[in-house]
Write a structure and sequence with these properties.
The structure is a single chain. This protein is an all-alpha fold. It is built from two helices and no strands. The protein has helices at residues 2-24, 30-74. The chain crosses the membrane at residues 7-25, 31-51. Keywords: Membrane, Transmembrane, Transmembrane helix.
Length: 81
């Protein structure tokens, strides 16, 4: 629950707060507050997406290492017939 909160709920709350600021704040704070909150929410979402994309490379690397170990023991690749 905690990780999903950081991944999805915190950015959503920041974006919603940004729009609340846009419609309720005074003229001097309106656009700066909106940009700050929406930008922070989108930045958190992007960082989460980039981290998850980077973590998939570790799975591929582990699969390649396992295939090489199998090749070393049996003399053929695991997916060969």
């Amino acid at each position: 629950m905690g990780l999903n909160t950081i991944r999805y709920i915190v950015p959503a709350v920041l974006v919603v707060i940004g729009f609340v600021i846009l419609f309720t704040a005074g003229e001097s704070l309106r656009w700066e507050g909106w940009a700050m909150c929406v930008g922070a929410g989108l930045a958190i979402l992007l960082l989460n997406a980039l981290y998850r994309y980077g973590a998939t490379g570790d799975k591929e690397r582990d699969a390649e290492d396992s295939a090489r170990e199998y090749f070393g023991e049996h003399g053929r690749w695991p997916d060969d017939d």
